[in-house]
Amino acid sequence: MIQTKCSVKDTFDVIKKLKEEVKWFTSHPQFRHFFHMPSEKYLKLQAMWMLLMRTIRTEEEEDVAWFTVNGVPIRYSMREHALISGLDCHEYLRKYLKLEGTKFVDYYFGGLKKITITDVEQKLLSMKTACKALFFLGRVIRGQAKDSGPVDPFILRIVEDLDVCRTFPWGRLTFEDAIKNIKHMMELLKGEVHPACGFPGFIIPLEKKRFRLSADSPCEDCPRMCKSRFTKSSRKGYPLEDIYAALGKTKVINSVLVPTLGEETLLARIIDEEPECNPEGSASDT
């Protein structure tokens, strides 16, 4: 079973109570879409677990993950990531790892040797917008296995300048994190099923659509993560036998995501690439 701290609902339930700072998120060119997602308490990750257990090892493409289901290859590239999340996937600024400073965290957390999400949450009511941004980034964008673990150093620095937080290519960062974590998990599992395995960071784009239904989104330019919700279930997750039964032996599975005409406009705005030709036999997603 995969475990994650990427809790969008719980994180935004906290942020929505801080009325003055909510506008920063709802007007953010990238993060505003998280408020448009269907409110779902639990992420049902069993299908994602099944998918990750079918990762194909490749040597040629370091920045792409491939999975195989019933013999059909399924691609997860930055293009898929951008199409689902709507996050900016442009190139980083030069020396982005050295962006901003630590005056903010030194001032508010200077007495702590290790800053955790628990520490940040305790100060949310008494601190400015930068603290709320830090809470969101540390819980959704680069969430760790436990709230008691140290917040990522890059996240601590970038909240020093909220304008940079608005324009930073979070899609590129979260995609690279996902590829790194997929490869790490494959090395860790070595083809065997473990009782539990933590998957840090932003995992929403890896959820399988086969167990999701269409949902209304509040704006036309919403990415795909806003346009579907999990099918109803009396449990927190789906039994594995239901997942295997749904897949069956079908080979009618789309290998890549093909954007609609409207989504081509979205991609042109958030990713640097030439438009792809639609592969024969492919349509949308899995």
Please specify the SSE layout and strand pairing.
Blueprint: E1 2-3, H1 8-16, H2 19-26, H3 46-52, E2 55-56, E3 65-69, E4 72-76, H4 78-85, H5 103-109, H6 117-122, H7 129-141, H8 153-158, H9 162-167, H10 170-189, E5 197-198, E6 212-214, E7 228-230, H11 240-247, H12 261-270
Parallel strand pairs: 1-5
Antiparallel strand pairs: 2-3, 3-4, 6-7
Helix pairs in contact: 1-7, 4-10
* Gap between N and C termini: 20 Å
Strand order of the largest sheet: 2-3-4
Content-based structural category = mainly alpha
Please state the CA-atom Rg, rounded to the nearest Å.
19 Å
Number of strands: 7
Per DSSP, what share of the residues sits in E-state strands of 2 or more residues? 5-15%
Q: Count of helical segments?
A: 12
Describe this structure in words.
- With 286 residues, this protein is mainly alpha-helical.
- It folds into two domains: 1-36 and 94-168, no CATH class; 37-91 and 169-286, no CATH class.
- It contains twelve helices and seven strands.
- It has helices at residues 8-16, 19-26, 46-52, 78-85, 103-109, 117-122, 129-141, 153-158, 162-167, 170-189, 240-247, 261-270, and strands at 2-3, 55-56, 65-69, 72-76, 197-198, 212-214, 228-230.
- Strands 2-3-4 form a three-stranded antiparallel beta sheet. The chain has a two-stranded parallel sheet with strand order 1-5. A two-stranded antiparallel sheet has the order 6-7.
- Helix 1 packs antiparallel against helix 7.
- The longest helix is centred in the middle third of the chain and has 20 residues, at 170-189.
- It is globular, with a radius of gyration of 19 Å.
- Mean pLDDT is 79; it is low at 277-286.
